[in-house]
Write a structure and sequence with these properties.
Number of domains: 2
Strand content: 25-35%
Shape: globular
Number of strands: 11
CATH topology of the largest domain: Jelly Rolls
Number of helices: 2
Strand order of the largest sheet: 1-3-4-11-6-9
Radius of gyration: 22 Å
Order of helices and strands: HEEEEEEEEEEEH
Helix content: 10-25%
Largest sheet: 6 strands, antiparallel
Bound molecules: calcium ion
């Protein structure tokens, strides 16, 4: 009898855990393709087999488009900078392509009026011109998506920072765009590193309540098990 009860509890527990994880994976689904710039591999681009960094026409970079410029990707560890996700990251201020400001974007399906969480990691490449050792930086970029438009100018050279904000989709598709604003004197192609870009839907109130019930159920079963 004791064994039967225990088996029933375990069965229920597995069901709750499964449901909880199924919900979590739906809520956290990243709508951005190649948000960590893991494709293509550095060495396969226009620099022809070189290591450290590489650049491509946007049409050759999975998921991303640009404004008639190039997309530059670095290998983790190059110039002492590690990726925060995977083995590569992007430098928004990409390789020279005619003197225009660099901009990259990605369009994905959304529901008008729904809220989404945008998050990504960003880091500066150089300190200010007066003191290269400084953690300060005059690098900056603008990020836009749905009703969100934000100037990001607080990143430093000594660490990655995390951006996280919520936007409301304005239509059945949304375009996420990063546009270079600031760079160093005579160094248009330096700075504004990006990695681990993610957009996910914000769970609706009902889903959050169900999620909470699932967690509460888990907690109760844990109590039962330890009792
Ligand atoms: Ca990455
Ligand atoms: Ca560059």
């Amino acid at each position: 009898m004791k064994g039967l009860t225990k088996g029933m509890v375990i069965g229920t527990r597995i069901a709750v855990v499964t449901a909880t994880f199924a919900f979590a994976s739906v809520a956290n689904a990243n709508l951005i393709v190649n948000g960590g710039f893991e494709n293509p591999l550095v060495g396969d681009g226009l620099r022809g087999g070189a290591t450290g960094w590489d650049y491509w026409n946007a049409s050759d970079v999975t998921g991303w488009e640009d404004s008639d410029s190039n997309i530059e990707i670095w290998e983790s560890g190059f110039q002492g900078i590690d990726a925060t996700e995977g083995k590569q990251f992007a430098e928004l201020n990409a390789h020279y392509a005619g003197g225009a400001l660099f901009s990259i974007s990605q369009t994905f399906g959304t529901q008008a009026g729904e809220k989404y969480v945008l998050s990504f990691d960003y880091r500066a490449r150089l300190g200010d011109e007066e003191s290269r050792a400084s953690v300060e930086s005059n690098e900056s970029f603008k990020v836009t998506a749905g009703d969100l438009s934000s100037l990001v100018d607080d990143h430093t050279t000594d660490m990655w920072s995390v951006f996280s904000d919520v936007f409301t989709a304005q239509g059945s598709s949304t375009t996420l765009t990063f546009t270079q604003v600031g760079y160093h004197n005579n160094k248009l192609t330096y700075g504004n590193f990006l990695d681990d870009i993610s957009v996910s839907s914000v769970p609706e109130a009902g889903s959050i309540a169900l999620f909470g019930l699932g967690l509460a159920g888990l907690g109760l079963l844990r109590v039962k098990k330890s009792a």
